[in-house]
Amino acid sequence: MEGGEALVFTNLGCPACHRAKAALKQNGVVYREIDISEDAKAQEVVRDVTGRRSVPVIFINGKYIGGAEELEEAVTSRELVNIVEGQPAILPRMIRGLIANRTGTAPRTSPVHTEKTGVQTPDNRTTGHGEDKSVLEELAWRMVDRKEGLRRSGAFSGAEACAWLVKNCEDVHNQLDLAIRKGRELQGAHLLCHVTFSEPFSASAEEFFRLTTQDDEPAISRALNARRTWVKPTRAASKVIAELRKMVLALHVEAISADGRSVNYTALSTSNSFKKYVKAAEELQRVDLFSLNREEKMAFFINAYNTLVIHAMVESGPPKSVFKRMGFYKGMKYYIGGNDFSLDDIEHGVLRGNRAPPSSFIKNPVFGSTDPRRFHAIVPLEPRIHFALVCGAKSCPPIKMYTPENLDDGLQVATISFCEGEVKLNLERRTVTLSRIFDWYKDDFGETPKERLAFISTFLSKQKQNDLKELIQGGNFKISYSDYNWSLND
């Protein structure tokens, strides 16, 4: 089959979007992709027109198809052939207006890339050096090289640094003033700093400096983002995590299979994009968490959890057994705002309001009465967070970016999508089959089975709501739980 034109609204890093695009390509349907992940107005328009809260949203020859599952059904039933070969329809007026507003701008499908620098990082954004940044980084590494560098650890005087630059840096041309200028370029690029962050670089024998590339200091933590100490200026926590999340979503795009069903974590471990991400994640060490309000903190830690999962999968590989999974969630951590936060700490200590993990025999709070992290516990509990957290397993929700502005809508969409796919009703057998998440965390959703089902019903389609209501009112129904799919997206 050849021909036909499609319009696909997507989010960055969305596995279902990859599946849909692969199906369109395989069936010879040319498509235009519009990423609406950061365009709240576009999301509202698409939702108002189609009634759909999740992506992808697909139109073919002007006709609304639905999402990835509906497209796959159309392929299987041969209905796609009829749509492609049939008379084109006119796109809804609001969709046409949305496209018109995008005219002249290419749809964005990933964070900004350039030929030389790849995914933008805090380094490239803040320095103003652009293409020179990589040259300065190479120079900084030469300065700490054991063979040709300054041959000493820790701090060095401005005079020593200038002497080395005059001798070893070609574009200094043996001139002291050019050596000082080069030192200030390194300082401006946050590759060199004064030991007290108080003085500009100079040739003084009494002012001492160090290179931020030096890694001979003891690590402040064994966390994945703390192998080097962050000494550069630190931005607002929400800005830092938003940028890291974008970088991880771009990594996800880089390694996801064409059908959107698996991620090659091994391939990511050697990518330059991942190396840049690891460096950028160091900024989390010094962010201020106490300045965040409830919505900002919830969005921050959801993003931090989802980002850490991917980072940990790339670094250590997927855990293959129950005991290794337990160690994975307890052991994989980020150093954030002066404290270690493991995956378990983030989920149970922060997002679940300092509740004990379901697997714990002793139901004590995760953060004790003297633990400074207890101040970041979010109460009351928001149960929808369970459907926003990813774990790399195939039963987890697809990754998404959360902001304070889209938090409520994002959690709502994630919960609706999860419940529609994971809640199965059988009126004849009078059974309700739920995801194992509703068993493990049952107390988060209600005190009794009926309360939990009442919570779930608010996220189901009208038909499923009515069917579930009928089961509850009739009584004598059975709840069972589906096996959790722990196999990894690799």
UniProtKB/TrEMBL annotation:
Residues 104-130 are annotated as: Disordered. InterPro entries: DUF547, Glutaredoxin, Glutaredoxin_subgr, Thioredoxin-like_sf, WH-like_DNA-bd_sf. CDD domains: GRX_family. Residues 104-125 have a biased composition (Polar residues). Residues 291-418 form the DUF547 domain. Residues 7-65 form the Glutaredoxin domain. PANTHER family: ELECTRON CARRIER/ PROTEIN DISULFIDE OXIDOREDUCTASE, ELECTRON CARRIER_ PROTEIN DISULFIDE OXIDOREDUCTASE. This is Uncharacterized protein. It comes from Chara braunii (Braun's stonewort). The lineage of its organism: Eukaryota, Viridiplantae, Streptophyta, Charophyceae, Charales.
